[in-house]
Every structure is written in structure tokens, then in C-alpha cells.
Amino acid sequence: xxxxxxxxxxxxxxxxxxxxxxxxxxxxxxxxxxxxxxxxxxxxxxxxxxxxxxxxxxxxxxxxxxxxxxxxxxxxxxxxxxxxxxxxxxxxxxxxxxxxxxxxxxxxxxxxxxxxxxxxxxxxxxxxxxxxxxxxxxxxxxxxxxxxxxxxxxxxxxxxxxxxxxxxxxxxxxxxxxxxxxxxxxxxxxxxxxxxxxxxxxxxxxxxxxxxxxxxxxxxxxxxxxxxxxxxxxxxxxxxxxxxxxxxxxxxxxxxxxxxxxxxxxxxxxxxxxxxxxxxxxxxxxxxxxx
Length: 291
What we know:
The protein is of the alpha+beta class. It folds into two domains: 2-116, Diaminopimelate Epimerase, Chain A, domain 1 (Roll); 133-290, Diaminopimelate Epimerase, Chain A, domain 1 (Roll), CATH 3.10.310.10. Helix content is 25%, strand content 36%. The protein has an eight-stranded mixed barrel. Helix 4 packs antiparallel against helix 6.
């Protein structure tokens, strides 16, 4: 036990992603040097940190191009890809090494990240997701999801049908017809968690379309032991892929997603959607600040 405790003491940076105010955004842990940590140790650190995800980076020796292997852990389990922890990691690396281009090797594939610093010193990171996919939803799965959410099918936006969207992780996208429906989030945690585990869903991307390119989102996250995520970069990327696949937007466009407002942690995610032939992956941008 003593050996494990000693090895599990790396420096953990704590940043809030997709905000310029530490009172907003989504907190993430970042370990910039995870060399030698076992999976059990990373999970234990993530559980102690207590955020929805902690990212563990290991530099690829001798690559000379800012390449890192990265693994993401919630307090309960490893997840294949996490957008807000990627943004936080990019900002942390830029602060340590200077802004520029980096490449993160995730379980879902390579994720390029570009970081920039403005004249006021604010660092912004932009990730480009793995190649996305959008699939239909089985009727029984949809019915069980709606029952767990305590939503009815009549409360959905008929112009934005349910889909499962992937851009590094799987998300069930459900569009509410009204802002009031989105605001009243009161769901069966255990039932939804069981369904999501069965369907390998990371979050539900619940959205309301305020304007053509402006959305509000809420993301239940039972697989991570979290009732709701205040900013979900992977789900925002999946939403961009979903909108493109449905023809609900005309690329190239930037979609702005507001998340976390109903939790008191407002977050802003900028989703840059190019045509599929120009760039299959979806770009998601945001800043991050230290907590």
C-alpha cells in the first residue's frame, strides 16, 4: 500500500474549461507527467480529485512535435475521450511550453490541439475530434431514455430528431422543444445510468435551439458518477456532427453552445463545423482558467 501511495502523488493541476471565470466552466484535473502510473493509480487519483474527468498525459519520447499519450478517468471509470479535459490539458501545456500545435493520442484516436495566447494573456485551445458518426436510435432505447428523463416524446423538437452521435465518444442527442423543458431536469439516475452503460453512451446531449447557430445544452453523466456535466466538449463535437449530418446547418459555420447555466456554472463552447470533405472532424474551442 505504501508503494502505491507514494507513486500516486504527481502534481495535479486543476482548471475550469470553457470559461474565463473560475466560478464557471467544467473543472478538470490535469497530470502533465503520468509516466509510470498504473491504471489503478490513475483511477484512484481521479476519484480523489473528484472532478468529472482527470487527464493523464505522458510525453512521447523523442518525437519533437509535442505529442503525448493521454488517458481520461472519471471518479468511477476510464472514458475514451473527454473534450473539456483536453481543452484544460492544451491550456496547461501552452502555459508550460508556450502556445502552438500539439497532438494527443487518445483511446479514440489522434486529437490535434492548437493553442493560442491573446494580447491579454488568455490562452485558448482548439481540439479537432476524431472522425464522427451519426446513427439512428432504436425505438426501445429512446423510450427507455425518455422514461428515465421523465420526458414525453411530444416534448421533443420535431425538427431535430433523436440520434446517437460520436466524435470520440458516444452521446444520445435529444432536442427539447422548449427552454422550460430543458430547465426542468429531474431524472432517474440509476435507470438512466444502466441504460447508458448498456448502450456505451458517455453522456446524453440534451439541447434546445435558441437560434440557428445558438444552442443551450445539459448533459447527464451517470457513467461518471456525476448528475450533470457543466461543459462537455466531446458532446459539443458530437452535436456539430449531428447538425451537419441532418443538414440542419450549412458549413462552414461556428455553433455556440451555452451549457452549465442551470447549474450556476455557465460555460461557452464554440463548435466549428467545416464541410465533411474539408475536415471530417469537428473543432471545439474554449479557454481555461486555474482553480
